[in-house]
Request: fold
Amino acid sequence: MSEVSGISHSNHDDHHHHKETFITKYIFSQDHKMIAKQYLILGVLFMGFIGVAMSLLFRLQLAWPEQSFAVFDIFLGDWAPEGVMDPNIYLALVTIHGTIMVFFVLTAGLSGTFSNLLIPLQIGARDMASGLLNMISFWLFFSFKYDNACLFICGGRSCCCRMDDLSAT
Reply:
């Protein structure tokens, strides 16, 4: 048939695809499997580590309430004067720990990981319907985590962006 039309179809593999760099393959990937790995690393491993570290801090205070710990000075600074955790900071750590573990690790980390990895494979698709939208959703998730962490760190208090603080400057 190719002889009749005069067009040779023997070289179908001559398509020139761009070479993937580290940035396009691992950071701004639109592949559902790589996005699932990004959710796993950021959501479950990184935020899970932060949640467990918070848990260890407030459980240490709970086990020995009046004891002074040097680790509190390292991680909490002014929030733990003389190595003893302030009661309000204890409650803030418990709350922030719960928020991180539920919303970041369980909800977004695990569901983002397994839904991006398994659903396309279960329905027999090669990839998600919109890889760009999938990538954007991960980066919005990442930026929300960063913004949320900044809320709890700045100013030396558990909540630093109150309106009366902004009007005082």
Remarks:
- DSSP finds seven helices and no strands in the chain.
- Residues 53-150 form one domain.
